[in-house]
Amino acid sequence: MKRNDVQIDYILVITLLFLFIYSLFAVYSGSGQYETQDPYYFVKRQVIWYIIGIAVMVGVASFDFELLERWAVPLYALGIGLLLLVHFFGTFKNGSIRWISFGPIELQPSEFMKVFLILYLAVILKRFANRKLSFKESIPTTLKVLSLTIVPFYLILVQPDLGSALVIAAIAFSLILASGISHQLLMILILCFMALIGFLVYLHNSFYDIFIKIIKPHQLDRIYGWLSPDEYASSYGYQLKQALLGIGSGQMYGSGFNQGSQVQSGRIPEAHTDFIFSVIGEEFGFIGAVILISLYFILLYRVTIIAFSSNNVFGYFICGGVVGLISFQVFQNIAMTIGLMPVTGLALPLLSYGGSALITNMIALGLVFSVNLRSKKYMFSRSENL
């Protein structure tokens, strides 16, 4: 029996390189409205964040991911502890309390909690690997996953940070999908989620006083702006309306780099962060948007291939959680920009300007590379089969 040395997934590396280049162009064009003295201010900072992120990713990739199995519970407990610190001693900024300040350094624990949750749920689900659980057997496993998810989900939701809370839920759901739980129970979970949405609509229409205690006023305003962007074009729906106008004006080939009238005039707020896809749509057009989405598809496809190629169940579930982490953020960000989902403030992974989300995604991808580098593949020679 001969072992084939596992090589680095160069397709994944090249995809990340193209996303980095895309990010620099989009951040430069989308941030011009904010910096007139130094038009490269945000681009230079984005390069620095990418250098830090790549260093972190390489460091994580060089670490044996199997050793993290014993650290999954302490890391999860650390994440919950940090979220509690945010709740009681966090820094108020931009209408929410999401950060802990250590002098000039601000830490956003919700970002790290995403990775910690992936590791802990991977440990839990590993015990039931290679098994197709019956409906009865699936119930305690699913309840344990949900109970471990609901705590960080709630602590992040009340910050308030609906976007990150939904990412936590998406990670749990993706790992449940990757596990062997009963399809009947999975269908029940989906129906329960739909019933919850229906119940919230009922509360809104019949018991508004109770509803407003669950959904914060600013979150409800975003829903109004999403459902009726024209009616609320000067208030709640302003960002969406301007983003749609910009993307629509891009048509097939776009208006050209740094030539988008909506973006360059400043009519699209946060064009270099949350609404960076509107920069791509307006200045690079439908073709540029398709290329970007294709890059994300290739990235997720390669992570999925690594998951199925791994002979380590813990690594398989880590990759499954990373797919949920990145895919939901991509879907939510693009969908909110084109009016398919409410605005939640989620950044577009590996493209939007900013450090916290970029470092988190790089850590997650570092875990994927670690799984890839340590997946053992064997090939039987002709003589060994005789």
Distance N terminus to C terminus?
12 Å
Note the run of SSEs as H and E.
Answer: EHHHEEEHHHHHHHHHHHHEH
Low-confidence stretches: 378-386
Question: Helix- and strand-based class?
Answer: mainly alpha
- Major beta-sheet overview: 3 strands, antiparallel
Rough shape? globular
Radius of gyration: 22 Å
Tally of DSSP helical segments? 16
Mean pLDDT: 88
Classify the beta-strand content into a percent band: under 5%
For the biggest β-sheet, the strand order reads 2-3-4
Could you give the count of β-strands? Answer: 5
Helix content: 55-70%
Task: Provide a brief overview of the structure.
The protein is mainly alpha-helical and 386 residues long.
Structural overview:
67% of the residues lie in helices and 5% in strands. Helix 5 (135-157) runs antiparallel to helix 6, helix 6 (162-178) crosses helix 14 (313-337) and helix 14 runs antiparallel to helix 15. It contains 16 helices and five strands. The model is unreliable at 378-386 (pLDDT under 50). A three-stranded antiparallel sheet has the order 2-3-4, covered by helices on one side. A two-stranded antiparallel sheet has the order 1-5. With 386 residues, it is mainly alpha-helical.
